[in-house]
Specification:
It is a single chain. By secondary structure, the protein is of the alpha/beta class. The chain contains 28 helices and 26 strands. Helix content is 38%, strand content 20%. Strand 7 and strand 8 form a beta hairpin. GO terms for molecular function: 5'-3' DNA helicase activity; ATP binding; DNA binding; hydrolase activity; single-stranded DNA helicase activity.
Length: 784
């Protein structure tokens, strides 16, 4: 093993998936067997700082293209000992909040070995005259100086995968091993991809007892997270939790589980109310949403007389050359006269026409000059959760619409702590948010918190579509709460070429004639096909569509899942060969098992405001720069060039086939929908309904008839959420029709006990919490 010290002069390449980096290093002193001043160093590194010194251990190797390099097996940062360099280092980027004066003060008190002193004895921080934030910054910076290679090696010995190790390291840095070994179960609630089985394996190696409260708490976290991530639920019934945790941990005594619940509640990790349990941050998010809705509902906006509204609606009808029905007029009136209102309806029911009517009428009633619509502080603010939905909103209204992330100024480098995020304030005469069913509870909380001076807020969507990918069901919960004016559109007004698709969509949603699915019409048809032949069928359909004159970018394949012969991954491999065949010697870039070529259609998977591209936005590869790591791939998104580094490619995928969830907020001229029994866990009515409504003109259904029937006949998964009850507890319900009152009453149980609930033996065994829940019908075999 060879060792040398070097000063980091540059980072040539880095891959955050596995922390692999290629570094340019200036040699300080000597490197045995090497006679030049600089060398390339490769290996797995955590956070490294330009101009800092590191000691590397490893060996010299010969790369067939780049020659002699140093392959590092381990490394550690060399702490500066000279006063000038130490002051500069302490006041640098690694220690935010510490300036040169504070740095000098630290050196004066602890000497030139200040960093080593603090590293060996962090309690010395208490002797320093620093704010708590400065102390935290100093400690965090010191921890990040630990060797990633050593931490990674230790964590891998516990059987952890590289991506999980990276997440743990990015969260805890030098404290990673200490935090894991202190309580491997607590990390379940903090690191994605790390679950109870992994924690249990580590706990066993550490000698943590089978009935230890840490282990039981880990089981509680896992059950709550399962329901949150798999079903979008924001709470779990206590009786269900007890049995699930008992089964997961193999601990039959409910007393121990109940005590662990109480401990977590006292520690502020969970909330127990009304015989249900939630993670603390989930409960608080719903609570803040309800409070903000109540605040907005108290806003004062001018109440226009019915005659005046009727007059401007009449003018609007003449201007737009349309005719509103009574329900649509009611929606416009609600938006004009109430600080907060909701509009829901399926395709062809006139949501877009109503939005245009609201904007036209408000402009007339408030005498808003046209020039102000394009000012820096516009009166009309429009937004949607995805780039494609925002673009379509702009096109149909003539008013600029933004993604919600861009509207709020949310960036990918924002802190995860809401208190540290500075959001853009929203003012204006009216804010209209479209595609509300896609908005999850965390984004909705941030949106509501940023609304400051807006007089009217209108939420628009289709309550019957798939709920958000993230947890909660905020749009559905607001409708259920019945505390705001809600307009439900049911009449189909669109009678164009796509009307048969609209009729089919409403038939699916209302669970009517399933035979419509398998009829051949002008706009849609069904092609029966077993999973093994899906690829062959898709190939024939796509080739035929191109031959009939469909542009390649107008054809969109949708599927429910990524895996299987009918999954996204397999279909993208097939469609890439059909729609963008690789020519001899053509360039390509490979990342996360995908090949990207010039001409490929691509999908952005995460919001990236810095590049001004957003989740669900579709673009096209127009360039490949093999020698530029920061501009490896160049794509066109809405007539703008966007450059991707290799790290950025983790958020990019091919888009010839995409999931139904990712297609929300978009429409395509030709949709080819694939459903087979390989997707049986996903087959629900709202999934099929959402997919069908993505087709603007033409639709081809491909797969097993049994799968389409199963989807039609299986109601959507109604998420268990607490927002509706929290809204009702803060504001009165509006007067409604009797049948609507009964419907809402069935969805909202009145709060009986607003205080925290402590689990006792009496509660568990009184029958209030049934220990046999989910066990009915199980018969024990007789023992011989």
């Amino acid at each position: 093993m060879v060792e040398f010290t070097g000063r980091l002069s540059g980072i040539i390449f880095e891959n955050n998936e596995d922390m692999f980096k290629i570094l340019d290093v200036e040699i300080v002193g000597e490197l045995a067997g090497y006679d030049q001043d600089d060398i390339r160093v490769t290996g797995s590194f955590g956070d490294v700082t330009i101009n800092s010194e590191y000691q590397f251990s490893g060996e010299l190797v010969v790369h067939k293209k780049f020659g002699l390099q140093f392959k590092a097996e381990s490394y550690h940062q060399v702490m500066p000992h000279e006063e000038g360099s130490l002051t500069k280092y302490l006041s640098g980027d690694k220690f935010p909040g510490i300036g040169r004066k504070t740095a000098q003060s630290i050196i004066d008190q602890l000497g030139l070995n200040a960093l080593q002193v603090l590293k060996e004895n962090p309690n010395k921080l208490d002797q320093l005259s620093l704010t708590q934030k400065q102390k935290d910054s100093l400690l965090s910076g010191l921890n990040s100086m630990d060797s990633y290679a050593e931490i990674s090696l230790k964590l891998s010995q516990y059987g952890l995968r590289k991506n999980v190790i990276n997440r743990i390291y990015n969260l805890y840095h030098g404290d990673s091993i200490k935090r894991l070994e202190k309580d491997p179960y607590a990390i379940i609630n903090e690191v994605s991809g790390y679950g109870f089985k992994q924690a249990d394996y580590i706990g066993e190696q550490l000698g943590i007892p089978f009935n230890d409260s840490r282990r039981i708490s880990g089981g509680i976290y896992q059950v709550l997270l399962n329901k949150l991530q798999e079903q979008g639920n924001t709470f779990v019934e206590l009786k269900f939790l007890l049995t699930e945790v008992s089964e997961l941990t193999d601990i039959p005594q409910f007393d121990s589980i109940a005590e662990a619940v109480n401990d977590l509640q006292r520690a502020g990790k969970v909330v127990v109310k009304d015989d249900v349990i939630s993670l603390q941050n989930i409960f608080e998010t719903e609570q803040v949403i309800a409070q903000n809705l109540a605040r907005l509902n108290e806003n004062k906006c001018e109440n226009f007389a019915d005659e005046k509204i009727a007059q401007v609606i009449d003018e609007c009808e003449k201007h737009l050359k349309i005719k509103y029905d009574d329900t649509q007029k009611s929606a416009i009136k609600n938006a004009l006269n109430h600080p907060l209102s909701l509009l829901t309806g399926g395709p062809g029911t006139g949501k877009t026409t109503i939005i245009n009517g609201i904007l036209y009428c408000l402009r007339r009633l408030e005498e808003i000059p046209a020039a102000s619509l394009y000012s820096e502080d516009p009166p009309f603010i429009l937004a949607a959760p995805t780039g494609r939905a925002a673009k379509r909103m702009s096109e149909t209204t003539g008013v600029e619409a933004k993604t919600i992330h861009r509207l709020l100024g949310l960036g990918i480098n924002n802190s995860n702590n809401d208190d540290e995020i500075e959001l853009n304030q929203i003012n204006g005469e009216i804010l209209i948010i479209d595609e509300m069913s896609m908005v999850d509870m965390f984004l909705f909380k941030q949106l509501l918190s940023s609304i400051v001076g807006t007089k009217r807020v209108v939420f628009v969507g289709d309550k019957d579509q798939l709920p958000s990918v993230g947890p909660g069901n905020v749009f559905g919960d607001m409708i259920t709460a019945a505390a705001f004016p809600v307009t439900k559109l049911t009449t189909i007004h669109r009678q164009g070429d796509d009307s048969s698709i609209i009729t089919l969509a409403h038939s699916i949603n209302e669970d009517q004639n399933t035979n419509l699915l398998f009829q051949k019409t002008k706009n849609y048809s069904f092609i029966p096909c077993p999973p093994a032949q899906v690829g062959q069928a898709i190939e024939q359909i796509v080739n035929y569509a191109v031959k009939k004159g469909f542009a390649r970018d107008d054809i969109q394949v949708l599927s429910a899942m990524y895996h299987g012969t009918s999954g996204i991954t397999n279909l993208n491999n097939l469609l890439q060969k059909i729609l963008n065949p690789k020519e001899e010697n053509s360039k390509f870039v490979e990342s996360h098992d995908e090949k990207f070529m010039i001409g490929d259609r691509v999908l952005q998977l995460q919001n990236n405001p810095e590049k001004d591209i957003y989740n669900g936005q579709i673009g096209k590869v127009i360039g490949i720069n093999e020698n530029k790591s920061d501009e490896l791939l160049v794509c066109n998104f809405d007539d703008r060039e966007v450059k991707f580094s290799r790290k950025d490619l983790l958020d990019l995928t091919r888009a010839y086939a995409i999931t139904i969830h990712k297609s929300q907020g978009s429409e395509f001229p030709l949709v080819i929908l694939v459903l087979t029994m390989q997707n049986f866990v996903m087959l629900r009515r709202n999934l099929l309904y959402t997919a069908v409504t993505r087709a603007a003109k033409n639709l081809v259904l491909v797969g097993e008839q049994k799968a389409f029937l199963m989807a039609t006949n299986t109601p959507g998964n109604n998420r268990k959420t607490g927002l509706a009850k929290k809204i009702v507890s803060l504001m009165p319900q509006l007067e409604q029709e009797e049948d609507q009152q009964e419907d809402n009453a069935s969805n909202i149980e009145k709060a009986e006990d607003e205080g925290p609930k402590i689990l006792t033996k009496e509660a568990i065994y009184s029958g209030k919490i049934d220990p046999m829940i989910g066990m009915q019908g199980i018969k024990l075999e007789k023992l011989n």
